[in-house]
Amino acid sequence: MMNHAAKAGKFLADLKRADWHDQTLWIMRKKRDKAVSCVPEWEELRDKASQIKEHVLSNLDAYLLQFEVEAVKNGAQVHWAFDSESFNQKVYSIINGYQAQKVVKSKSMLTEECGLNPYLEDKGIEVVDTDLGERIIQLRGEPPSHMVVPAIHLKKEEIGELFHSKLGTEKGLADAQKLTSAARQHLRKKFLSAEVAITGVNFSVAETGTVVVCTNEGNADMGVQIAPVQIHCMGIEKILPRVEDLGIFIQMLARNATGQPITTYTSHYQKPKPGGAMHIIIVDNGRSEHLGNSKYRDSLKCIRCGACLNTCPVYRRSGGHSYNYVISGPVGSILSPIYSINKYKDLPFASSLCGSCTNVCPVKINIHQQLYSWRQEIFEKRLIPTSKRYGFKFAGKILASSRYYNFFGKNIRWALKHLPRKVLYHRINIWGRCRELPPAPDKTFNQWYQENYKRN
Amino acid sequence: MYKDKIIQRIQKNKHSLRPLPENPPKMEDKIDLSAKFCENLKIVGADVFRIDDESLVSPFIDLHFPNAVDFSDPETWKEYSSTDPIDKFNKLNTVILRGQFGVAENGAVWLDDTFFSQRIVPFIAQHLVIKLSKKNLVGGMVEAYRKINLTKTGFGVFISGPSKTADIEQVLVFGAHGPLKHTVLLIN
User: Fold this and answer.
1) What is the ipTM of this complex?
2) Could you report how far apart the first and last alpha carbons of chain A are, in Å?
3) CB–CB of B150 and A243 under 8 A?
4) Beta carbons of B159 and A265 less than 8 Å apart
5) In terms of Cα–Cα distance, which of A308, A281, A286, A282 is closest to A297?
6) pTM as predicted
């Protein structure tokens, strides 16, 4: 498989498009800044949100059990799934239990993580993603490139082309309003005939057994309120202790994600609708193991707002598909190695370590520090390329000794001035592949200092 | 059982108990709630009309939304049952609902199923009109959640403006799946 750097290289081959991608996400970041600046107590909210999440993780078992008791009292059926396989099986067995064939689904990164769609499709179930962005990438057969705006990598002309071939819209249509309207008509038919609605979960409340789902499109509710059966899929870390805690998180989520004061719909599901059935599946899939990893535990606090993606200079210029993991961007780069350090060893290096991700995180995850820590582990486990490993070792030796440092400094300054470009940018100089070496100064800082200040 | 396995693993792996912070911060309450509420409604793409007196609401609705189906009237509930075919709901054009309270900080209105019998109504209609008393405004989400009693409701939702999406090149479009239009009548 191509690593992040190679895929990013491909992404950057079309420089104009890469610029457009960069700008589009930067606009989201700017909208976020504007919305956040309207909340004077923002930093206090971040502290509280982080503390609540830390508390929850330290008492997770009790809250999950309390949630189950309350949800069952409300008339919901609660199921537990240990891994993606048992989760997919559970969803299928619920659908099959109602002899249903048609499923509508609103956005859920958890179901992406578990590969639910292909599993159900294999069993002959029709699964329709109903979030517009998700539907677009589903029709294209692609994974999401961003956890909040899954089709952010696509131009309207490409979507027009896709809708022309899949939904029969007129050729050459490239108007966002008209394309959205075509999708609305197409998906309304799907809603009206759906037998089961699946949703993700943004938050759940232990004291009331409530499931909270936030959407702008209203697709979660169009599904849930029409289909006789509703299934909510929730990771174990989504739980909050009290209803009043929602006040903090709802205030932050949309502002930090898209710069809106709140999502259009913030739905609170407690009881099944009259004549309907409500299922909640609590999914672990590696999270309880992750909890025991004290160095990286904090990343379980993530509420999937996507702000760290929008702000990341590397994400914006490499696109979500360069990351070979379902969750892209900085937070994906610290979550993925927990599941397989071998498979995702390139991702912690997909960062400039500038720390902007940490600054925008609403629950104060120390993302850039975790990225750095992963790099050290990957180095120690000898998972980085040999050239890089020896390069680092060599650099370490030189930087640790002033004698070596002066010796190499002198020689490199000479080389930069006198050796031909062909030699300097030989392919063994990986660093120089996309970068220019700086012009060599005439003398070192030391020499300059000695001459100018030493004996004054 | 998966449940036992998950719970046991959490118990083995969790860190020592951290405190749960008390008293979430409060929005400053010196602001003019209705002005802020109306300002935010405009930001989220809604129309808002201030009506001076409850008695003027009916004539206003008759004039501006003559064909609206008024779900704020319990009599209407009798005509729409959960066993009715979904097509009947799909034909709803303009519907009127009563909002329980509004939130100045973001223009959202809380509706729950104690105020309307069929949960699909505010989502499936083309135009949602919400009646809301000016006295039922709160400053922020923290106060809002203190007002809600989730144990009493089966379903509740904050709605803030018409259904929207920006999934195509970040261009904001109203009417993704739910109502294309959202109107709030703020009644003195």
Assistant:
1) 0.97
2) 61
3) yes
4) yes
5) A286
6) 0.94
